[in-house]
Specification:
Elements (H helix, E strand, L loop, with lengths): L1 H11 L11 H37 L6 H42 L1
Organism: Acrobeloides nanus
InterPro entries: MIX23 (IPR019171)
Protein name: Protein MIX23
Length: about 110
């Protein structure tokens, strides 16, 4: 995801020689808005998956014949929570990249 952000920043934020017609603030705001939408979708999907796995555990927790299904759901929940942690790190890195790149472009204009 961060690579796509950097690519879009590089494509849309002009260098000094091409900066004449571009509004840097609008470009940065647009990128942040798009990114916010994608982040919300991703967070919603992760939460939906966690809830579905929790429902599986709740529905079959008393059935010893479905131990593999319970174990699988627990593993999925653990992996999804790890993915949430990774997402937090990626969000922080992407925000820092956007901030630095937009600030640099504003200073150069």
């Amino acid at each position: 995801m961060e690579d796509k952000i950097i690519f879009e920043l590089n494509c849309r934020l002009p260098t000094n020689s091409f900066a004449s017609q571009q509004n840097i603030n609008d470009i940065c705001k647009d990128i942040k808005t798009k990114l916010g939408g994608v982040r919300k979708q991703r967070a919603d999907l992760l939460q939906k998956c966690i809830k579905e796995n929790q429902a599986v555990i709740a529905n079959v927790h008393d059935d010893p014949t479905r131990a593999d299904e319970i174990r699988s759901a627990h593993t999925n929940i653990r992996l999804l929570r790890n993915e949430n942690t990774i997402e937090e790190i990626t969000v922080a890195q992407a925000d820092q990249t956007i901030y630095e790149r937009c600030r640099k472009a504003e200073l150069l204009s």
